[in-house]
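A quick aside before the break. I want you to see a complete sequence-to-structure record at least once, exactly as it would be stored in a machine-readable document. Don't worry about memorizing anything.
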Amino acid sequence: MSGAHAPGASPSMDTHPDIVDMRARHESAERAASTPKVQAIDALAFLTGLYLAASPWIAGFNQFQRLSIVNLIVGVAYALLMSGGFGRAYERSHGMAWAACALGVWTIVAPWVIRGDATTPTTVWNNVVTGAVAALLALAASAAAKAGDKSDASHARNSGRGRRNMSRAGHD
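That is the input. The structure line, written in tokens, reads:
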């Protein structure tokens, strides 16, 4: 028995429902990631993360070593989360955006939580403003990803009907 199928016996891989569905999801993710709104959110979030990482040296409070290290680590993590450093799969962006939002909230409270007295006006203003911007950008990214999820769900419902119809026709 050879592995060859008779012509017309089965659909080609290009028309297999799973392949068609994967292509549609990929195209949807590409469309979502390429809108000017999402690109602006990504760019601003990346810059916010870089600023947070460098802020102890930019704003001049690097004498607070613990807060400086926390801002450096959180800033790099935020930039990676929000810029797709862990992979650009927009269906997973919703969860990553919520994690980034948590990092923004942590940035706000860090001057009071970090051991040692790091609550100078410079550290408080820097972290509160940067953390608020980070949290808002993360919420915007989450909303954009959720909007993309809704359009994907709509597509999945429509392609699911097509799959059922193909199954009934014997194209399973």
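Two observations worth writing down. The helical segments are 17-33, 36-59, 65-82, 93-113, 121-168. The mean pLDDT is 77. We'll return to this after the break.
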